From TrEMBL:
Residues 117-187, 226-271, 363-418 form a coiled coil. SUPFAM superfamilies: P-loop containing nucleoside triphosphate hydrolases. Residues 1-30 are annotated as: Disordered. The keyword Nucleotide-binding applies. ATP binds at G521, Q522, T523, G524, S525, G526, K527, T528. Keywords: ATP-binding, Coiled coil, Microtubule, Motor protein, Nucleotide-binding. This is Kinesin-like protein. Residues 1-16 have a biased composition (Polar residues). InterPro entries: Kinesin-like_fam, Kinesin_motor_CS, Kinesin_motor_dom, Kinesin_motor_dom_sf, P-loop_NTPase. It comes from the Eukaryota. PROSITE patterns: KINESIN_MOTOR_1, KINESIN_MOTOR_2. It comes from Rehmannia glutinosa (Chinese foxglove). Gene3D superfamilies: Kinesin motor domain.
Length: 795
């Protein structure tokens, strides 16, 4: 209070110390108890507060000056009036004595108060004197100060003049600066905004910076470890490069060997066919020689018997001749005897002479017969000798041919062995190449423009040597995005061109591998066309029918090498996350099957060998591709197909065809179990674009969910994550052995060239690129001696 009053100039009613003169005067008058009730009079008094009743103060004795238990209260005019009224009331209420006593008491107290006031007044006077002294001192000092102030004032006046000049200049400057300031304020406001934005940015940047710094720190650590790893990897890389170059050269050599073997095989096969022709002609020759020999033998035998009979005849003739000679000799001796005995008659002699002549003529004729017979005999003997010679010749020819046949048979066996060996080598090399790649292979196929599509080019194919036949460029919003796959089929690629590229895989199924080929892509991009083809001309047939034809053709060829095969087929579809058996008996149409098999729960199970079984699924034994074609037609009728805005005949489910092949080689006692899975996935499509509602919407949502589960699985595999979410959908769980197991897997990514589908095409190509980078297990051939469960499984 005091310090505040020091700064204030004294009011006219105050003295020079700032004390209210009037108030002091009034206080003096209060001390005489006669207090005029004029307005504005203030009474200062000390009192003690009794019973805490501040609103009804009671005077309980002289207030002490010591301060802490005393307070100062101001009695206003009203208070004093109230006090006097109270005094009057008391005066009227009580009798005089009491009242006078009370009054005396009051007076006593008032006296004490007055005494106290007087004391205060005394204090006040001493204080006033002190203040007077102080005032004098202050006045003196003030005079000094005034002098000083005057000097200073002069100085200040001159300074003020200068300052005025300066002020004018400054005012001008100020005006100018004011303008600048206004401008600056504007810019400041804008800057403030930008600063706020910058501050927000800075805050986010500093957060990011912190994160980045943390990342950086961990990155540095990582870099260090990576550097170490890099060094080790470099060493490893060099060794790998060496190994790789060795492998490359081995691969080259193997390829050359393979080519040579293929050539040799072709030559051997050709040789074999000529040898087979030769062998057949020799066999024919042999049979004819044998027939000739038999004939000659028969002739010989006939001639032998003729010679024997001739010899008998000759002997007989000789005997006759000898007998007749003896007769002639006897007759001649008789004639001589007769001649000696001339006594006999001439007639007898004549008769005897005629007899002798007759005998001689008979003898001559018989000699002639003998000669003839001898000639006949000589001729027959000559003929016999000739037939002997020819039979000997035939025999030697026969033996020659026999040895030739034996030689040919040996050569044939050698060639067949070579073919088997060559085939084994081919399989080994083919599988080595696939194993070296170690990932899911991806083929891309772009279908041609359909009649109702705009013929604008959003898809192009690079022509550089390294990307030829493997690259595809997609243009979106003027930006060209490039992708590379194992093979890219342009729109003009025929079904045959596509099949040629996968025929090796089909062969692998016969060799005992699990093979999985599936088609992925947006609705209407050509998946069903690629997998199944179009009904009608044979050149429109898709991969499934062509693969089956090849399987049965090769089965026929391998039969010659001792292989016997048994084949089983199953077909299912996954519709709205539910498995449906497409070959279930009495299944004639979609609705019938829905009614009959709605309650059936087909469960998927994988056994320890990585084979997949679907419970209650119909499995059909097949012996020809025709049987399978019939089953395919049956299944096609049962499939869930519908019309969408994107495709007239859209597959609303995933179609899974499985051919289980069990082969047994009798000569080597080898047994193989191959599986061929051919899958036509339902088309991915945007809900907005598909225009689906109701059931179609539900189908589309189910399709998109399972396809997104497929991409989750692929991403997890690509990142080599510990947990791969195969169980998130029926499709991925069914394909588990194909995606992450030991099967040979090939994915077709079908792309539409329609400019309105460029977004979907990009998604499909990006997904396919991820799949291509995905490493799966090494394909394993399933060979054994005896199968524990010969029933069909998925893979
Ligand atoms: N390479 C091709 N050559 C000629 N026509 C083709 C080719 N690919 C597809 N098509 C035609 O394009 C249309 C759509 O093909 P498709 O039905 O195979 O598509 P999708 O991908 O199976 O569709 P969704 O997923 O809806 O079943 C069909 O009319 C088909 O004949």
């Amino acid at each position: 209070m005091a310090s505040r009053n020091q700064n204030k100039p004294p009011s006219p009613s105050q003295n020079k110390y700032g004390v209210d003169e009037v108030s002091v005067d009034k206080r003096r008058r209060i001390g005489n108890t006669k207090m005029p009730l004029d307005t504005g009079i203030r009474v200062r008094r000390a009192f003690s507060v009794v019973n805490g009743a501040q609103d009804q103060p009671q005077i309980s004795g002289p207030p002490s000056n010591s301060g802490s238990d005393c307070g100062i209260i101001e009695f206003t005019k009203e208070d004093v009036e109230a006090l006097l009224n109270e005094k009057l009331k008391i005066k009227n209420k009580f009798n005089y004595k009491e009242k006078s006593e009370q009054m005396a008491e009051c007076i006593k107290r008032l006296k004490q108060c007055i005494k106290w006031f007087q004391q205060l007044e005394g204090n006040y006077v001493t204080e006033q004197e002190k203040l007077k002294n102080l005032l004098e001192l202050a006045e003196k000092r003030s005079n000094d100060m005034e002098l000083l102030m005057k000097e200073k004032e002069d100085e200040l006046n001159s300074i003020i003049l200068d300052l005025k000049k300066n002020l004018e200049a400054l005012q001008e400057k100020f005006a100018k600066e004011e303008r600048d300031k206004l401008e600056a304020l504007d810019s400041l406001a804008t800057e403030k905004d930008s600063r706020l934005a910058a501050e927000r940015l800075q805050a986010s940047i500093s957060e990011e910076l912190k994160r980045t710094q943390q990342d950086n720190a961990s990155g540095i650590q990582k870099i260090q470890t990576l550097n170490d790893m890099y060094k080790r990897l470099q060493e490893y890389n060099t060794s790998l490069q060496q190994y790789n170059s060795r492998l490359q050269s081995e691969l080259q050599a193997t390829n050359e060997t393979l080519k040579r073997v293929e050539k040799e095989k072709a030559a051997v096969v050709e040789n074999l066919s000529t040898l087979r022709g030769h062998y057949t002609s020799l066999q024919e020759q042999l049979t004819s020689s044998r027939a000739l020999q038999d004939e000659a033998m028969k002739q010989k035998e006939a001639l032998g018997s003729e010679v024997t009979s001739l010899r008998g005849d000759l002997q007989q003739v000789r005997d006759d001749r000898d007998r007749q000679l003896l007769q002639v000799q006897a007759l001649s001796a008789e004639v001589l005897k007769y001649k000696e005995c001339t006594g006999k008659s001439i007639a007898e002699l004549d008769s005897l002479t005629t007899k002798t002549n007759e005998l001689e003529s008979t003898c001559l004729s018989q000699s002639e017969t003998i000669r003839r017979l001898q000639e006949q005999l000589a001729f027959a003997e000559k003929k016999l000798k000739l037939s002997d010679i020819s039979s000997l010749e035939t025999r030697s020819q026969f033996e020659e041919q026999n040895s030739l046949i034996l030689e040919l048979q040996n050569r044939l066996a050698d060639s067949e062995l070579k073919i088997v060996e060559g085939e084994k080598l081919r399989k080994r090399l083919h599988n080595t190449i696939l194993e070296l790649k170690g990932n899911i292979r991806v083929f891309c196929r772009v279908r041609p423009h359909l009649s109702d599509e705009i013929d604008a080019k959003v898809v192009s194919f690079p022509t550089s040597t390294e990307a030829l036949g493997r690259g595809i460029d997609l243009t979106q919003n003027g930006q060209k995005l490039s992708f590379t796959f194992d093979k890219v089929f342009m729109p003009d690629a025929s079904q045959e061109d596509v099949f040629v590229e996968i025929s090796q895989l089909v062969q692998s199924a016969l060799d005992g591998y699990k093979v999985c080929i599936f088609a992925y892509g947006q609705t209407g991009s050509g998946k069903t066309y690629t997998m199944m083809g179009k009904p009608g001309p044979s050149d429109q047939k898709g991969l499934i029918p062509r693969s089956l034809e090849q399987v049965f053709e090769i089965r026929q060829i391998l039969q010659a090498q001792g292989w016997k095969y048994e084949m089983q087929v199953s077909m299912l579809e996954i519709y709205n996350e539910t498995i449906r058996d497409l070959l279930a008996p009495n299944r004639t149409g979609f609705d019938a099957s829905r009614a009959e098999h709605a309650g059936k729960q087909y469960t998927i199970k994988h056994d320890a060998n990585g084979n997949t079984h679907v419970s209650d699924l119909t499995i059909v034994d097949v012996r020809s591709s025709k049987e399978v074609s019939y089953l395919l037609e049956r299944a096609a009728q049962s499939r869930s197909v519908g019309k969408t805005q994107m495709n007239e005949q859209s597959s609303r489910s995933h179609f899974v065809f499985t051919l289980r092949i069990m082969g047994y080689n009798e000569s080597t006692e080898q047994q193989v179990q191959g599986v061929l899975n051919l899958i036509d996935l339902a088309g991915s499509e945007r809900l907005s674009k598909s225009g689906s509602t109701g059931d179609r919407l539900k189908e589309t949502q189910a399709i998109n969910k399972s396809l997104s589960s497929l991409s989750d699985v692929i991403f997890a595999l690509a990142k080599k994550e510990e947990h791969v979410p195969y169980r998130n959908s029926k499709l991925t769980y069914l394909l588990q052995p194909c995606l992450g197991g030991d099967s040979k897997t090939l994915m077709f990514v079908n792309v539409s060239p329609d400019p309105s589908s460029v977004g979907e095409s990009l998604c499909s190509l990006r997904f396919a690129a991820r799949v291509n980078a995905c490493e799966i297990g090494v394909p394993r051939r399933q060979t054994s001696l005896k199968s524990s469960d010969p029933r069909l499984s998925m893979g």
